[in-house]
Amino acid sequence: MRIAVSGANGFVGRALCVALHEAHQDVIALVRRSGNHDPRWIELLIHDDNFASLAAGQPELGRCDVFVHLAARVHVMRDRVADPLSVYRAANVDGALNAARAALHAGARRFVFVSSVKALGEGEPGRPWREDDQPVPVDPYGISKREAEIALSEYGRANGMEIVIVRPPLVYGPGVRANFLSLTKAIQKGIPLPLGAVVARRSMVYVGNLADAIGLLATNAGALDGVFHVTDGNDLSVAEMIQAIADALGRRARIVPVPIAWLRAAGKLLGQSARIERLTGPLRMETIRLREELGWVPPWTVSEGLAEMVRGLEKHRVDIP
Question: 141 an active-site residue?
Answer without folding.
Answer: yes
